[in-house]
Amino acid sequence: MTTRIDPWTSAGIEDYSKLFEEFGIESFAELLPHVPDPCPYMRRRIIFGHRGYVPVLDAIRHNKPFGVMSGFMPSGRIHIGNKMVMDEIIWHQRKGGSAFVGIADMEAHSVRGTSWQDCRRIGIDEYLLSLIALGFEPDGHIYFQSECSDVRDLAFELGMKTNITELSAIYGFSGETNIAHLESALVQSADILQPQIEEYGGPKPVVIPVGADQDPHIRLVRGLANKMRMFRCEVRSVHNTQQYASVRGAGGVHVSQVAVRQSTRQYISVRGKSAPPAALSAIASEIAGMGYSVKQYEEHVDLFGAGMDAFEAIESAVRRIEIEFGGTGFMPPAATYHRFMSGLSGGKMSSSVPESVIALTEPPDEAFAKVKRAKTGGRMTLDEQKRLGGEPDECTVYELLLFHLVPDDAHIAEIYQECKSGSLMCGACKAHAAELMADFLRDHQQEREIARERLGEYGLS
Ligand code: SF4
Fold it and tell me: Of 38, 110, 216, 297, which has the fewest beta carbons less than 10 angstroms from its beta carbon?
């Protein structure tokens, strides 16, 4: 049976390892040792996978341009799960990335029927105040989809590179789906590619921090980024098979022998099916100027003798020429994938089940009470808990501590061990977590009021 992941209706992902096998999401653990000063979500393996993150990591490590982008649908209250994405955006911004945050008002309007006024109010009052309070800097870009002509224009162009069948296969659209909902999928794709348009410095690696349920978007947009290209650079192989026949006579005996020698030669091919011929010629002469032997055909240019280490330089020259001829040069966007937090009452965290989630805007004493009522991984009796220990991996309170409330790795490891060994009881643990949660909300809500005064710095009012 295949795992279906759908950005709007996914009920939760049970087995993350399936994602590696079925969808080609790569493990983040292999990159972790190379990430300078990784954020807690990385260190704690909450970010478990990625797609195409290596160029982003390279940019972070070598101070090259890169971007980070995510969008928030202005619907309901901002909650602790949204905080995770905001923290990831801010971490990348602090590492030197150009940060983009889009308020997906077109999506909320088309899918949820939220009025434009409510989209604006919820977008600012719920989401953007918390984003700024958590540390988003004013040099980042905040926008509402409906007010961003670049995004809407790009969405139109992207619409020419896909069709209803492709979108339906990804999102499960049917004949009843309204067209604006369909269009909002393209607008979200444009959100992701916008950081690479000329106005923002052109093509660059851009990472989208998402939950695994958003992977269909990411795959769609990576495909669209490629389809928007005039050219693609490929490493190709040519196989040569040569036969040698020898007939020798020795002592009157004839011996005939056929030897087969096979060899494989790799070469770089720059291919552009419907690219302007003048652009292809410009690429051929640029590459020849770099000292490589070039053969130009009607729709492609082949280079022999260039080592594979030259690939990046050639790709970047091709991208530059493509842009000179009116192309986009888009790079496929990258994604990091994080685990979902469970709902406090067990099951999936959902804004429509208030008991399952803590809103960043809710009164601290209500949040305190919710944590005290949360589902734990504790045993039926105190005696059992002392004997067998608790199950922190099954505990929503432990998740809160791990994801948001205990910044110190040694401290969280201590809580885990004490729970497992039976020396920590759920009552005391929950009281501690509830206290930390209420303290966090009190501080955050004060920061939100300061952020309200600073909206003008972000071009908002
Ligand atoms: Fe969860 Fe704490 Fe109970 Fe362990 S002791 S199961 S971490 S509430």
Answer: 297
Closest Cα to atom 5, ligand 1: which residue?
A: 426
User: Could you give the CA distance from residue 106 to residue 183 in angstroms, rounded to a whole number?
Assistant: 9
Q: What is the rounded average pLDDT of the residues 190-209? A: 97
Q: What is the DSSP string of 165-205?
A: HHHHHHH---TTS-HHHHHHHHHHHHHHHGGGSGGGTS---
What is the 336 CA–ligand 1 centroid distance (Å)?
29
**CA 48 to chain CA centroid, nearest Å:** 12
Of all helices (H) and strands (E), which one includes residue 257? strand 253-271
Contacts of 381 (CB under 8 A, 6+ apart): none
Tell me the one-letter amino acid at 6.
D
Give SS3 for 262. Answer: strand
Is any ligand 1 atom within 6 A of the Cβ of residue 434? Answer: no
The CATH number of the structural domain formed by 17-228+331-338 is: 3.40.50.620
Q: Which residue has the tokens 């009012």?
A: 461
Whole-prediction pTM: 0.89
Instruction: Read off the amino acid at residue 437.
Output: M
Residue pointed to by tokens 């390892």: 17
The CA distance from 95 to 93, in Å, is 5
Q: How is the chain split into domains, by residue range? A: 17-228+331-338, 231-324, 354-458
User: How many angstroms is it from 383 CA to the middle of ligand 1?
Assistant: 14
From residue 422, alpha-carbon distances to 58, 384, 391, 419, 427 in Å are: 44, 9, 10, 5, 13
Amino acid at the residue 237: S
Angle at 194 between CA 171 and CA 223, to 5 degrees: 45
Asked whether 392 lines ligand 1 (CB < 6 A), one says yes
Lateral strand order in the sheet of 98-103: 26-27, 47-51, 334-338, 206-211, 67-72, 98-103, 141-144
pLDDT digits (tens, 9 = 90+) for 247-275: 555 555 555 556 666 777 788 999 998 88
CATH code for the part of the protein at 354-458: 1.10.240.10
